[in-house]
Amino acid sequence: MDYLETVRLASKGDAGAFSQLIHERKEDIYRIAYSYVKNREDALDIVSETVYKAFISVRKLKSPEYFNTWLTRILINCAIDHLKKNRRTVSLEISAAEMDGVDRTELMDLYSAIDNLEEKQKSVVILKYLNDLTISEVSEILQVPLGTVKTILHKALRELRLELKEEER
Predict the structure, then answer these.
(1) CA-CA distance, 67 to 71, in Å (whole number)?
(2) Cβ distance 29 to 70 under 8 Å?
(3) What is the CATH number assigned to the segment(s) 101-169?
(4) What's the average pLDDT block by block, 10 residues per block, for the chain (169 residues)?
(5) DSSP the chain
(6) Alpha-carbon torsion 37, 43, 49, 54, what sign?
(7) Which of 2, 22, 71, 74 is least crowded, fewest Cβ atoms below 10 Å from its Cβ?
């Protein structure tokens, strides 16, 4: 069975098809959630909430080819809602893989600087650089024009450079 057919079945209420789609994307959605909260437990909570919200509204999905975009959008909204609800300092849990050949202080400074960006900038940076998506994929997920994504990214990178330069001094 091909991907689009699986999405069509899921949108008609087939729980097995929906489960298969989530299983195929589970690592991606966890990574995006973790990029927002940098905490395993919170990321898992966000993933759970995302899967629940997607499951109860999958019948509303109009175009099966946009399932991944639709799911990622739900995930980002859940992550932002979680951050707004908890408004606390996010603890940085940095894995050994992330630390390979990188100065721990520099990486912590980078994550801290990303956390200080406004929500749209943070979303663009996380999707583009921490999840290796193209600018057009980011545009599709965030439902904003390509030029707007480029502008947001440019401003975010400028702010990150400024903040990280100030921390060097």
Answers:
(1) 6
(2) no
(3) 1.10.10.10
(4) 89 93 93 89 94 93 91 92 70 46 70 86 88 88 92 93 75
(5) --HHHHHHHHHTT-HHHHHHHHHHHHHHHHHHHHHHH--HHHHHHHHHHHHHHHHHHGGG---GGGHHHHHHHHHHHHHHHHHHHH-SPPP----HHHHTTS-HHHHHHHHHHHHTS-HHHHHHHIIIIIS---HHHHHHHHT--HHHHHHHHHHHHHHHHHHHHHHH-
(6) positive
(7) 2
* Level-2 CATH architecture, domain 1-93: Orthogonal Bundle (1.10)
Query: Do you know the residue count of the chain?
Result: 169
Domain spans of the chain, in order of start: 1-93, 101-169
